[in-house]
Write a structure and sequence with these properties.
307 residues, nine-stranded parallel sheet, mainly beta, 0% helix
Amino acid sequence: NTANMGSINLKNAKIDGKLSNTSKVSKSANIAIGKNNKANMGSVNMSGGSIGKTGVVTNNSTVDKSANIAIGKGNTANMGSINMKNAKVDGKLSNNSKVSKSANIAIGKNNKANMGSVNMTGGSIGKTGVVTNKSTVDKSANIAIGKGNTANMGSINMKNAKVDGKLSNTSKVSKSANIAIGKNNKANMGSINMTGGSIGKTGVVTNNSTVDKSANIAIGKGNTANMGSINMKNAKIDGKVLNKSKVSKSANIAIGKGNVANMGSVNIKGGTVGKTGVIINDSTVDKSANIAIGKGNEASMGSVQVE
């Protein structure tokens, strides 16, 4: 099932012109219940295809006092997000989302709850490509409950993508909660997460996140809670990676077994940093707590870790 509200869905499309989605959702509910469900609210979803050098894709979404819910198996709940799979970006792709007093929830197995996020699987950002995520989340909740869940709030998530252009995440999260409960869950707030892929010599990845009076929580087994962090696994870095995050009066918590809690950190596992590669972490953490409770847990705050 797929439930779309104020969204654009593209498959194998070639865009050389301008494509804009401007949606305002207020006091509403978007729900998909069952198997392999997708609930999209104020989002742009692109599978295959390309955005040429002259192409401009913009998502301007405002969600207020609303709920986006996917319940069952293999669910995805997207609110004010851009989701791309195997797409080639040589133009401009921007996500401007404002989420207020709303809830984005995925319950069940292999769920993803994305709020004010950009998610890219495969594909590439060429030298002329610019991908920007500007999200503001206020008094809202992003929740993934069950097994193998991911809850993303004001984040950019990439898997096996090639970046030769500019990738920027500017997120402001205030008085909100990002929660993943269960097994092998990930809760990401104001973070950039990259698995595999590469950042070429001309590539620049920047995370500017502000988190205030908020909570990022992962509870269970094998969970990861990231707040205002850049996390990279098996990626090749020949360009620039910059993390500028400000965390104030907030809590980043991982409870259970084998959990990881990262706050205002840059974490690199596997992969390589080439001769031209530059990694900078400029994070400020004030009156906040970064907590890992249980067995075999890791808690990192304002640090750079390379393994």
